[in-house]
Automatic annotation (TrEMBL), chains A, B:
Organism annotation: Desulfoplanes formicivorans
Top EC class for this record: ligase
Reaction catalysed by this enzyme: (6S)-5,6,7,8-tetrahydrofolate + formate + ATP = (6R)-10-formyltetrahydrofolate + ADP + phosphate
Pathway assignment: One-carbon metabolism; tetrahydrofolate interconversion
Chain segments annotated as transmembrane: none
Keyword Iron-sulfur among UniProt keywords: no
Protein name: Formate--tetrahydrofolate ligase
Length: 612, 612
């Protein structure tokens, strides 16, 4: 383990220069500066694609440093080639600051690269909401980032906008249809446009609009108010905006096998129910084809690189608390054909993101992981052990810069719980202690001791500080774990009733004593269980990521609580039943000190400043 | 003129094959099929950029057939090179079907190309509203189109989405600020985030949100309704969505000189007024830098090609009725350095788009056109002469397929009015009769006779049917006109009061007897005229494009009417005062038979079907 012992600045400099990688010291420079400096020396996307073995027509460049991979011909060409090893990165229950899961994903790939492996990462495209609300990159940090950083964070190749356009087109179609059905007789409707009456129930419109910001002002709105055009200003009703990345269209992009599967799923999205209780879908609104037309490019995964030049695929949705929160199946499939080791990331803690990776994403993809990394920080362990919760944009409480082995030990209960979740899936967990300069030897020793006793591999990793060279211990532990035979098995059978599946997740993954349903949730579940149309639907929970429970303020491993399910959504296209637990909203809010205040553009160079 | 006489199918085939251009016959194939067929043989964007003399780092490819031009280095490199000839394409008052202005722009460039000229076009990016609402391409038609057609029409390189994101971020900042100012004391605000109270007047919020669809349901909405989170669900107030292309951000993109000018203008957008009547800007909300960050790529013009391989730059906003409706100054500036003839397009008729080209766009750019093309169709002339108004999606009335020289002659009054507008600007008009297969020789002879008598060059052009080969007469007339010395002069001095400028446009361009203001409009104008901050503001009228008057049902040259100005908007960033005439809305509606019903994707190839 000597190679991963904390290296002094001088030693580190030598190591990095020997490897031909020159990046700025993260203890002295912010993430944005490190990325901008490395971008001067980055590979073109053409070189990157060559290195991966892509043929030139399989890469669609977007500028000289980003591109899209036309996945269908690659999968055709390499269909018979065996897949590389498949590694998921998950984490303990994070603090509101995040525990460096993307950083570890990138760092691990950089470490595997140093060991001479053909490897790649898949991460999720960041949402404009957090980018504009909370300072910090969703592309890693320190010496483990992906570049080009600013373009990646702002619009990128347009996928989130395409999802938003597809989603909102369904709402345009719904609201126009409701207006026309109100204004015209059956005969007139038929004569004007050959349309039958859908009889949409205005009190049972399921879908809202989307916007990719944190915008509490649009959570609850009234639309269709007459502004002087009488019956031509829409149909007045309650409505809402959700953040785009929580859209069912985004979930579909994450789980679609290909464009044909995507098209079929888009057509099954339930927009509302009619006055007789039947679902009204995007196909009924005759808008599913046009929605798909917006997504033809979005279905192709995006390609950028790590600071050290390994390929990073970026595709589909963040937000594992309110959405599926997985990078796409298409991205993983392509990468597994092109790499010997492919590292993908599932959002937030193992209770939230890994549970969905395990029981939804892998169900649809048919893929099975060879290992799973559980990222932990001494910071989060202290928080679970009793230190005050740190907040973005506020000074880190002093408790986090002083040694406290007792808190760390107490907080390990949360980590051990997540290790247990991964083991329950039949996969070998590798705990990655994502090192901070403030961590002490005794704190780290305690974590290793407890995790090893629980049967997990443990690696201390300094990828933030030292890049791939700092992640060699982690890379070795992961390659080791991949040699073990995985006995990956689902948590529950899809033959089980939805209520039983919810109960299983609540008890076995969250540690709840049981589940309580609101009247609405309960009657909705009854309908679902009685309707054979929902028989093969999956379960996608909406729950806070800040606690194993449904109450974000409960840290550690909460005991003696029951999961409260207030609502149940039906994603007909994705094929998900979505129980909403606790008081979680699909539209986050913007606080009083948002990061957009500090963002600007250097107009001489076009560089974005203050983003990270 | 023999070469442009109607060529038989057989002759046409010979002509096209001789020139090495093979495109499908538009009398037999829809626009989408012609485009898709030509796309099999189109140049890569790399070849196109080479042909234009761009250096490789000046082109940013987006896939292999579209790209962005990094304008700043090109203008630096070629700053001293004299500009090519500058031609604007305008039209008579169109029918709701449009009269082929984009088709003529593309056709003219193809004709100039056949004559061996180095030439280019600049057109505007189509809005998702009409694309999803009304069948038909905004990229020309028949044998005069630009390609790749589907990608161009659906999201393209992301500019409209970037404009929407920038615009809506200002609304996120505004509504969050209003909520926080309501919820907290001055002391708390200052302590939490170092913010002073802006005291925004909720009854004087100027800006709405944007979405790039025709969505009447979002015209008038109430936001910020408490959904159970009490004071954390926003500030309840009336609000609205406008179509994105009408955004002031889009106007700024069209007129900005460069990124620095764009940044400065973005910071001057007036979002609301405070309780003392002072403007509250995006700079006051500390969001202007972040808005600009979304626009760093959007400021670079896009590059595609005609069916016959000439470069087409696409940049900024459509909708000259409710917005400036011009392709960007940056696109024209770059193209004038790279071409001997550059053809740009201003939206709708000369009363609407050309007036703004003349008195706004050229004021900001300092450029002067060498010629202006006025597009007319026998169809529109008949409509102005008394035939029933044709409607999109409905069968064309029989009147349009039968000869009626009298209606054509009567309708020419409208055409002569537009010729007069162009002449008033000091520029030589070239009338282009955009030929339809149903036009008769006598109808065409009458138009030529009347236009020539009014001192205009006239060309019959069959570019829709025959491509560039059909536009040679037009190309020759335009090159001729460009040799005349242009005496381009503004319609009014910017020293004149705003009221006087509005009166001048109403009388001299629209043919009104005068202007009547609503109480609100009048008091707003009084404020504006008394405030030196607005002294150097331009005038950007909002008026229907379907009539010279403010009433879309009045055809020909309406007499004995007064312009009704109901509202006056203030675009502090663009630097426009925007009087809204008649009952025109910034958010169009979706009808009962929208085109999205017929759009779908061929999932085997990724091709979009039914769009055109």
């Amino acid at each position: 383990m000597s190679r991963s012992d904390r290296c002094s600045l001088r030693e580190r400099k030598v190591v990095l220069e020997e490897a031909g990688i020159k990046t700025l010291d993260p203890t002295k420079y912010p993430d944005g500066d490190i990325a901008m400096d490395a971008e001067k020396r980055m590979k073109t996307v053409y070189e990157l694609a060559d290195q991966m073995g892509l043929e030139s027509r399989e890469l669609l460049p977007y500028g000289h440093y980003m591109g899209k991979i036309d996945a269908a011909p690659v999968l055709n060409r390499l269909g018979k080639k065996p897949d590389g090893k498949y590694i998921d990165v998950t984490a303990i229950t994070p603090t509101p600051l995040g525990e460096g899961k993307s950083t570890t994903t990138i760092g691990l790939v950089q470490g595997l690269g140093r060991r001479g492996k053909r490897c790649s990462a898949a991460i999720r495209q960041p949402s404009g909401g957090p980018t504009m609300g909370i300072k910090g990159s969703a592309a890693g940090g320190g010496r483990s980032q992906c570049i080009p950083l600013s373009q990646y964070s702002l619009g990128f190749t347009g996928d989130i906008n395409a999802v938003q356009n597809a989603h909102n087109l369904a709402m345009v179609a719904l609201t126009a249809r409701m207006q026309h059905e109100r204004n015209y007789s059956d005969e007139k409707l038929l004569a004007m446009s050959g349309m039958d009456r859908l009889n949409i129930d205005p009190t049972r419109v399921e879908m809202g609009w989307t916007m990719d910001y944190c915008c509490q002002a649009l959570r609850n709105i009234i639309i269709g108010i007459d502004g002087g055009n009488g019956s031509r200003d829409g149909y007045m009703m309650r409505s809402r905006f959700d953040i785009t990345v929580s859209s069912e269209v985004m979930a579909i992009l994450a789980i679609a096998a290909d464009l044909a599967d995507l098209r079929a799923r888009i057509g099954r999205i339930i927009v509302a129910f009619d006055k007789f209780g039947n679902p009204v879908t995007t196909s009924d609104l005759e808008v599913a084809g046009a929605m798909t037309a917006w997504l033809v490019e979005a279905v192709k995964p995006n390609l950028i690189q790590t600071l050290e030049g390994q390929p990073v695929l970026v595709h589909a949705g963040p937000f594992a608390n309110i959405a599926i929160g997985q990078s796409s199946i298409i991205a993983d499939r392509v990468a597994l054909k092109l790499s010997d080791y492919h590292v993908t990331e599932s959002g937030f803690g193992a209770d939230v993101g890994y549970e969905k990776f395990w029981n939804l994403k892998c169900h649809y993809s048919g893929l099975a992981p060879d290992a799973a990394v559980v990222v932990a920080t001494i910071r989060a362990l202290k928080c679970h052990g009793g230190a005050p919760v740190p907040r973005p944009g506020k000074k880190l409480p002093d408790e986090y810069t002083r040694e406290n082995v007792e808190w760390v030990e107490k907080g390990c209960a949360n980590l051990l719980h997540h290790i247990g979740v991964v083991k329950k899936s039949g996969v070998s967990p590798v705990v990655c202690i994502n090192a901070f300069v403030s961590d002490t030897k005794d704190e780290i020793r305690k974590v290793k001791e407890l995790c090893e006793a629980a049967g997990a591999r443990v690696a201390l990793s300094r990828h933030w500080e030292c890049g791939g060279e700092g992640a060699l211990e982690l890379a070795d532990a992961v390659t080791d774990a991949c040699e073990e035979k995985s006995r990956f098995t689902p948590l529950y059978s899809w033959d089980m009733s939805m209520r039983k599946r919810i109960e299983t997740v609540a008890r076995e993954i969250y540690g709840a004593d049981g589940v309580d349903y609101s009247f609405e949730a309960s009657s909705r579940l009854k309908q679902i269980e009685n309707d054979p149309a929902f028989a093969d639907f999956g379960l996608c929970m909406v729950k806070t990521h800040l606690s194993l429970s449904d109450n974000p303020s409960l840290k550690g491993v909460p005991k003696g609580w029951r999961l409260k399910v207030g609502d149940v959504l039906t994603y007909g296209g994705a094929g998900f039943i979505v129980p909403v637990a606790g008081s979680i909203s699909l539209m986050p809010g913007t606080g009083s000190n948002p990061s957009y205040r500090r963002i600007d553009v250097d107009t001489a160079t076009g560089r974005v400043k203050g983003l990270f």
